[in-house]
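thought: fold this chain, then report.
action: predict
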Amino acid sequence: MWRSALRTRLCVLRPPSRQYARKASPSGSLRKQILYTTPSLILETFRKHCFHPDLTRLQCLRPGSLSIQDEQSSQSRLPTPYADGQWDSIVHASTLSSALNGIDTVLARHASSPISTRLVLPTWVVLSVLLKEPVTQVEAFTLHRLAMSQPPSHTAELGPLLILLSAYWLAKHRMYAPLCDVVLRTLQLRDSLHAYQLSLLLRILGQANTSREVQHFMSILLDVAIKRNLDLGVRTYRVLLENPVATSEVARLVERHMRSRSYAPNLSHTRAFLRIYGGTGRRRIAARYWRRIRGGEYYGPNAAYTMLPQQKHQMLVEHLRSFRSPKKMNMYIKYLLKSTARTREEPVNASSVSPPTLPRPDGISSQVWLQVLQIAARKSSISAEELLARFNAGKDHIGSPRKTLVAYFVAIKGLVRRENYAEAIELLEDVLPMKAHFDGPKLTKAVEALTMANRPEVALRLLLEFVHKQESSHSPATEHAARVVAGAQWKSLIYAPRSQLVDSRAINSFMACLLRIRRPDAVFYIWDTMPQVFHVEPDSTTFAILLKAARFARMFEGALQVAIADFGMGRILPNHNTEVELHRQRLGREQAVAGLEALLAPGVKHQVTGFWRGERAGDVALRVAWQVLVGNWPILASFSAPVRAVRRSVEEPASSPLADLFHSFAGDNGDDAAAGGSGHGQGQIRPYDEDGRTFFSIVPEDPAFRALIDLLATEERAYQIPLVLVWMRYLRVWPSRDTLATALVYWGEVTLEGPWWRARTGVWESGYIQLIKWISRWVGKRRMPREKDTHKALERVRWIRDFREKRGARNSYGE
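observation:
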């Protein structure tokens, strides 16, 4: 331990010439004012760095810069390049809706005129429209398409400004799929981007609502800033690190960028690094920053208040979160007890680093005990009886009701992980009378415990109760008052974001538990009615759960049911004989809630058939997957697979060499994948389904693509796997080794040929080897799956197929 401390002390950054520091004050080291990015601030920043005549035209249109009378008079003097003033109704419109209506009027007038040239809106007119706040997602998407439709020749200098204003409104409305388009467009301009432009985009992403999807965009842009050696500034670092869901990857890149720019972290940065690395289990790195804070080894004045018991205790708890082993935690606590006793007897030399001590010399505080309990709950080697013994031994000595509630839910989560649902429900019944004090994470744990205990109807009632509570707390009057206080400017609360009682994490946990208790029909129903019932939009995790449910539903298909569906008579199957079941997306909220309650009602036997919307669940899920991917990113429909499969699926007999020869010439290489095998043409896929529902909140991550690959192989479409990998590459989604190993296992089944075919064609390199080389050029040899990853994928695929065959055999006999 002392050698580690010495090594850390030697590696501390020395104060370089280029540094910055915020004035430390005991009143609020973690609550300092951050300059939030707004459209007017973005425009003002561009005016300082870019002297363009269009920005001069917009100077008098900045929101909040003038009074109402002055703004009206200045807008009346706004110069327009046209004598008829056809742009006045657009620029001077009070709302975005009226401005868009004015654009439609101008375009319709131009289309009816004999002029055949295409009308291009002036850049300053488009900018004036982008400065108006959209109310709905439809208006925000319209602004995004308007900004992206400007010709590059007309926006050579102001193109980044259009991108930033579009990204601002998309981030506000949580439209992460179009926001991904903005990031990809920015990467195309990365060689011409200036430092202030990339810094503004990172600050927009950092102050967006807490979302894991945005963290992936930050990592991509930070990598660009590091490679081009662009200066981001202190405000950007603060916004990125203070985000509540900041990942260790973002922290690592920020750390790397600081070193490349010769920046030394100040106290606030060091605290943020300690919190992020501690929460993600990076114990060695968290310990390094913990020792730096204690030794005052950060840039800026040495804040004496960091050694106060309360501040020291909080930082110690953040460091303890990095432990993952109860044994190492107990050893560290013993070390803390000894150092605390030694410090009381012998005063520490002021020139040396103070040893870590406990805030209470007479014993361990409740927060430290809670961290010990959390580590024990995460460790699977500790039995449920031992976990309950530790919980019962300390719960009566906590004192604080809030901390007691936290301890209960830590124990509940540990018991659910050990599949001891009866004990978990007993503890949950003790805290349900205090449900008024539940927050989002506690509600998620309660829903998970109830559902896994086979009481999903109770979990649903609890979710609906909190949905009603959330609706009453966010009434229109409250929203209007908040907007008036904020001065009609969007300022995302970074340090204390508005907590959603029922968010996507709670619904994802509910759906995952329903799938674990073998209720894929309920998962499909929630996907169809999620916006009506819970006021929540799906994310990448929800998308992955849906694809897993569709693959799992294949196990409930009987031979007779599949034959009926293949003949187009799926409506006569159980639970699929009404128009309501086929079009759940059109239900009102009361009808949707009633239908879900009836579906989860206890005592009613529900026959899971493996069908969804009157069709096979796999077909519908793949159609939804293509709607999400190709609908949000239409360019994906133009991509083709890099290699060609010999046969369409592993189920297809390949014993005949002539069959392999035929499919190698006439087989699919994935080019028809834009249709998704669902009957929809390539040009018919839109960013919304037939009922008008959008999927702007979904940006698929690696687990979602792995679930899609599994479903393609289950639905005998393994030949489309290379195309999915091409899509991942375009969307900048780095695949894990498990995903690549799974894809190669499925791909080998449809592409490996016999020696006759190789001798006949003279091509001795199979499609399997070709895909391996293509993946190696993409991710590099270091990221390629190892032998153990391939064995793990083989065992997983074998287990899935064995379970499906056993279940399918029972369904064939009507069981």
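thought: worth noting. The longest strand covers residues 611-612.
final: tokens above.
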